[in-house]
């Protein structure tokens, strides 16, 4: 069973830069996951830790749904990382923190490329493959 079913990177002005569905589900499920990611943006804005970002950018559990748990991470540059995890998995908080740190490093490497246009969608196959690799290791 897959633990992480969706990974999203959202820009400063809440524009989706990268959203990938790892659930292998239907189009309806993909839309549901996109909706969950979109709803989590409001929660990130309201979260007290989101106003002052220090060394720890991990926001923790944003909210649970009937089937999923949603976790967030906010960079110093206000880029948001969101993952949707199956509710039935017993994933540890520290593992999620480490996942976000790895995702942050991948994001920085990808957006530092001279071929990346700032604030645009991340369409790099290398980024997708690297994210998929860390999703599978969790």
Automatic annotation (TrEMBL):
InterPro entries: Longin-like_dom_sf, Sedlin, TRAPPC2L
GO biological process, one term: endoplasmic reticulum to Golgi vesicle-mediated transport
One cellular component term from this protein's GO annotations in UniProt: cytoplasm
Pfam families: Sedlin_N (PF04628)
Top-level taxonomic group: Eukaryota
PANTHER family for the chain: TRAFFICKING PROTEIN PARTICLE COMPLEX SUBUNIT 2
Family: Belongs to the TRAPP small subunits family. Sedlin subfamily.
Listed name of the protein: Trafficking protein particle complex subunit 2-like protein
């Amino acid at each position: 069973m897959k633990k992480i079913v969706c990974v999203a990177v959202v820009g400063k002005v809440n524009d989706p830069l990268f959203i990938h569905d790892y659930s292998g589900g239907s189009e309806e499920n993909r839309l549901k996951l996109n909706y969950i990611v979109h709803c989590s943006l409001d929660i990130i804005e309201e979260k007290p830790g989101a106003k002052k970002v220090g060394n720890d950018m991990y926001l923790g559990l944003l909210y649970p749904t009937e089937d999923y748990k949603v976790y967030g991470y906010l960079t110093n540059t206000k880029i948001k990382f969101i993952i949707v995890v199956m509710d039935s998995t017993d994933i540890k908080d520290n593992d999620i923190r480490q996942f976000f740190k790895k995702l942050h490093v991948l994001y920085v490497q990808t957006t530092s490329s001279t071929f990346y246009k700032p604030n645009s969608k991340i369409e790099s196959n290398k980024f997708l493959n690297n994210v998929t690799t860390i999703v599978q290791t969790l």
